[in-house]
Design goal:
Largest sheet: 3 strands, antiparallel
Radius of gyration: 14 Å
Number of helices: 2
Structural class: alpha+beta
């Protein structure tokens, strides 16, 4: 849970709002899997954040399957760009998928 001030900060600066603290039970972000159950490889994300755009400068980049919530939001603000993801990147199971996420983010930032 966060305060109204914290939620407003995230909406203004990062362009997203937390829509649901239980974004999915599918263990997937689009076609990518992530660690949602305890395992021996990495910590798990039992409750991935379900995100929604907070303003017209933001849009859903990745979705959880069979969920109305975004898994990732991209935001182009007045003089900044942000990428917000509902799970830590390191919990994405396939290293090639992790690289693809970073690559997209860097391209979105113009790098």
């Amino acid at each position: 849970d966060c305060t109204e001030a914290e939620a407003g900060f995230a909406a203004r600066l990062f362009g997203y709002k937390l829509a649901n603290a239980f974004g999915t039970l599918s263990e997937r972000i689009g076609e990518m899997s992530f660690a949602q159950k305890p395992n021996s490889d990495i910590y798990c994300v039992e409750h991935p954040d379900g995100l929604l755009p907070a303003n017209k400068s933001a849009k859903i980049w990745l979705r959880y399957p069979a969920s109305p919530y975004g898994a990732a939001i991209v935001h182009s603000g007045y003089n900044s760009k942000t990428v917000s993801i509902g799970v830590p990147i390191e919990t994405i199971s396939n290293p090639e998928d992790q690289v693809a996420v970073f690559k997209y983010a860097l391209e979105f930032f113009g790098l």
